[in-house]
UniProtKB/TrEMBL annotation:
Pfam families: HTH_1. GO terms for molecular function: DNA-binding transcription factor activity. InterPro entries: LysR_HTH_N, Molybdate_resp_trans_reg, WH-like_DNA-bd_sf, WH_DNA-bd_sf. It comes from the Bacteria. It comes from Desulfallas thermosapovorans DSM 6562. This is Molybdate transport system regulatory protein. Residues 29-88 form the HTH lysR-type domain.
């Protein structure tokens, strides 16, 4: 089969490493869902994971990265919930901006090599 007959698509992953902790797209999606739902349980459900798994990922990231990411409040009449810390909001926004720019550049490079 000649190269011209094959249409390629680009796939890649990015992650950030710090203090032995690795955070990638899935973790940032978890943070985004917490921001949107106001709940770790709600975010976990959207992602198809258990609350325990989601909470474990958050606690591990906080320990490895040395920054608070989520603040929780216990239920009651007003209900419980969770929200991102200012540090987590900044990290999430920065990663999102990085991904947008990286996606644009990766697609340019891909087109240069494979979309002749």
């Amino acid at each position: 089969m000649a190269m011209e007959d094959t249409k390629f698509s680009l796939g890649y992953k990015f992650w950030l490493e710090k203090g032995g902790g690795i955070l990638g797209d899935g973790f940032f999606q978890l943070l985004e869902h917490i921001k949107q739902t106001g709940s770790i349980a709600g975010a976990a459900a959207v992602m198809g994971m258990s609350y325990r798994t989601a909470w474990g990922k958050i606690k591990t990231a906080e320990q490895k990265w040395g920054i608070p990411l989520v603040v929780t409040r216990v239920g009651g009449e007003t209900g419980g919930g969770a929200k991102l810390t200012p540090e987590a909001v900044h990290l999430l926004e920065t990663f999102h901006s990085f991904r947008l720019e990286a996606d644009r550049e990766m697609n340019k490079i891909f087109q240069r090599f494979f979309e002749v």
